[in-house]
Amino acid sequence: MSKRYQNHIGGKWIDAVSGETFENRNPANWNEIIGTFPSSGAEEVNAAVESAREAFDAWRLTPAPERGDILRRVGDIMTARKKEIASNMTREMGKVLDETMGDVQEGIDTAYYAATEGRRMFGHTVPSELHNKFNMSVRRPIGVAGIITPWNFPMAIPTWKIFPALVCGNTVVFKPASDTPLTATTFVEILIEAGIPPKAINLVHGRGSAVGTPLVNHENVDLISFTGSTVVGKSISKSASDTLKRVSLELGGKNAQIVLDDADLELALEGVLWGAFGTTGQRCTATSRLILHAKVYDRFMEMLTSRAASLRLGDGLQSDTDVGPMVNQDQIDTVQRYIGIGKDEGAKLALGGSPYREGACADGWFHEPTIFTEVTPEMRIAKEEIFGPVLSVLTINSFEEAIQVLNNTKYGLSSSIYTNDVNCAFKAMRDIEAGITYINGPTIGAEAHMPFGGVKETGNGHREGGWEVYEFYTETKSVFVDYSGKLQRAQIDNY
Hints:
Layout: E1 3-4, E2 7-9, E3 12-14, E4 21-26, E5 29-38, H1 42-60, H2 64-80, H3 82-93, H4 97-117, E6 124-127, E7 133-141, E8 144-148, H5 156-167, E9 171-175, H6 181-194, E10 201-203, H7 208-217, E11 223-227, H8 230-240, E12 246-250, E13 255-259, H9 265-277, E14 287-293, H10 297-309, H11 329-345, E15 348-351, E16 355-356, E17 366-367, E18 370-373, E19 390-396, H12 399-406, E20 411-412, E21 415-418, H13 422-431, E22 438-439, E23 455-456, H14 469-472, E24 474-482, H15 491-494
Parallel strand pairs: 1-5, 8-9, 8-11, 9-10, 11-12, 13-14, 13-21, 14-19, 18-19, 21-22
Antiparallel strand pairs: 2-3, 4-5, 6-7, 7-24, 15-18, 16-17, 20-23
Helix pairs in contact: 1-7, 2-4, 2-6, 3-4, 3-6, 4-5, 9-10
């Protein structure tokens, strides 16, 4: 019998009022039920928001360095439990153990980084234009943060959002993806163990429409941070505007790797294999386009198809697995639909193209690494996010053409160029329309202390990670101290 898990609301672990639950299953073996979780709704959201609001005053008045010290303890606990957390994450969302270990490590790094920010929280002091007057700005928490996260990085992405929210003095209502509820539950257990006040962190499981929508619409939620699809992000932006919430959206991507004719081809090969097929292509930063110079096309494609064909599919807990399963049947269906679109558009299927259900993969959601060639820039498979192990290869004849092709999409998250020409490298940094550019590295590989996010329809301008995320979770307050002993009317009297 599978274990039954609960929400965490008002400092207690409780079931949904309805008593309804949903199953969490292993995508590598759909017969394995990892656990059952509460299928919650607006009633649970209301209670969670009330709890977070109640805890806000005491938490905001806790000194920021003290809040940071608690997050340091979170990092310590996560370090001690790293292998256990990663193994369970692989069971519930599929990616190989090395990747889930990296996912947990990113959360650990983010914890330690957030702990140090608890001692920084910089404002500014500036001179006043008047005599005997002092000017400064300070940072203040905003209130209750609604956090909505995806399934593909079920530890790293929640830490990107929740650690800064907490260290800045906000309280949290956390709605995780229903495909990865166990990792979210473990994360909240660790936060409470480390010393986060139990009412300051609330966890509500359930479907997006049942939990996410009332969370976004709630009048006592002050900000929303969401990672997911552009379609859902646009809907959240519209709904949140009714209550003038602050909203951070990290949305889709259609990331490209450029390989110029002077590139180190072996290095570029390793980059595109990792970028396209790591996490089975289920990353917002995945390499879904390869923009290849015509002079190296034949040689590179021979190298690429040979290596991609040798990638081993299987359970991510097995040490010889290169590519794990997709997260569920819906993702398989989406990939299959786009493979049909690519064929209909006239692209050539050079490798893969089918679900894989042989041997040990018979009971899971596996899909072959897939490569399309003869792709043109206006094809849908070159412009739309697929979120699976599908790589579209486009051919160019110059650096300038490569940049033009790369920018030919509504997204602008990550990008990559392989070249040994320093001039091309710096021009790429300047001209690529993306929030992230890698030189001689793949499109994936975020670091906890660097801003993460994109341009165009990849988001609304805010950043996760690094120093910039702390600006999202705080309000700036300007403070003026007049010790002149008389009324000074600024510009009226001064000029």
